[in-house]
Amino acid sequence: MELLKARQTKYVAYATLYILVTVAVLSVANILADRYDKTYDTTSNKKYTLSEQTAKIVKGLKEPATIYYFDRPTGFKQAKDTLDQYANLSPKVHVQYVDAEKDNLLARQAGAKSIGTAIVQIGARKEEAKGLTEEGITGAFIRDLKSTTRTVCFVTGSGEHRIDDTAGNGFSRLKDLLGRDEYQAKSINLLEKAEVPADCTAVVVGGPKADYVQPQIDALKKYVEDGGRALILLNPALKMGKEQIADNDALSSLLASWGVTPSNDLVLDMNPISRVLGTGPEVALVMHYDSHAIVNEMKGTATGFPISRSLETKNGDKTTVEKLFESSDSSVATTKLNSPSIDPNDPKNKKGPLTLAAAGVYSTGKDNSQGRFVVIGSSEWAANAFLGFQGNRDLAMNAVNWLSSDEDLISIRPKEREDRRITMTNGQIRWVGITSVLLLPLAVIVAGVSVWWRRR
Fold first, then answer.
1. Please, are residues 377 and 25 in contact by the beta-carbon 8 Å criterion?
2. Per residue in 189-240, pLDDT tens?
3. 139 φ, ψ to 5°?
4. What is the CATH code of the structural domain delimited by 150-409?
5. What is the pLDDT of residue 312?
6. Which of 11, 247, 363, 389 is deepest in the core (most CB within 10 A)?
7. What CATH code would you report for 52-145?
8. Domain segments of the chain: what residues?
9. Residue 189, Cβ neighbours under 10 Å: how many?
């Protein structure tokens, strides 16, 4: 009897101790969870995590910011998943959820025109978010911080990619991408008027197929050397069938005077990783980058450049030129541009790695005024069909940000949603059906009968 009591006493003591420890652990965990809002995103592309670009902008705030969200109380919960992430990034960000029906006057004063509107206020400046997404809310932060309108001008008239072209060879996706960072995009024709408009923050020469005439060259030269900014995408001068791209010697000479000389060749990449990424030798793959503001944030990100030419770089009297990246060690460059039957093993080929992109600064001699230019030996990488490849979107935006002196915006942008659906053949679908409907239940029945038979 004494032994039984002793055992019962121990069991009660143990159970009581376990209960107290469990309650204590749960209480501490609840207090910490309430005080420190921490989450962990397990999705492959970090779908529920704010991007590095957003973090850089929010953490770099110099003054307090308030996000006002106007909605019915039933809609607050949906907005909290996104808006509270901004408040967690910086103590300078505050979120206020306002009942738009009860506080209608406050909504009117803030400029909220409809239910479900988010408005970002920094100091006296207010901007409405274009949607309850990271792109929309971060865009409102950018508009608050950037008081001037920024316009990217795309040169047309000589066969360049067009921003109104939605086909695979167009630049419409690039235009949309610029809009997310609050840039305006428009087309200019230097043949009609050989002068870059004053409202152009940066100019893009996107893969001209025809030769630039001297007035066009003079306009670009004056623009950059007076402190303008230019992104030059110059393809190889292919002469294959219908693919007839002019040599564009005048434009190449202008770039050479700035310290970037386009080689008259075509880069082929024999990197075995190409097969994994679904590309061929005509796409030069880049895995490593030099040290520059445009590419510093892209370590570990691949980019691809279809139909590329190599570049030679050097500093000039008024220019400082830096390489951005090179092709892989397994790449070669051929000068045979008039035949589709190119031998990658030709001993006359130039061996990689080969410079594919460079960025330069032109000294104007004026205070706080320098020309900037980025030259890349391909334009197809920024076209609709290839812009979504790996890090190409980030490279395009980083280049524009650097050209427009928006270095604070240079980072990796919010990733597009991935299509994670599984595609199966009819045979695979049948096997899934047979397994789930027949084999698995049959296995459970067999296991049950086996256990019953042994016990019997």
1. no
2. 999 999 999 999 999 999 999 999 999 999 999 999 999 999 999 999 998 8
3. -60, -40
4. 3.40.50.880
5. 96
6. 389
7. 3.40.30.10
8. 52-145, 150-409
9. 12
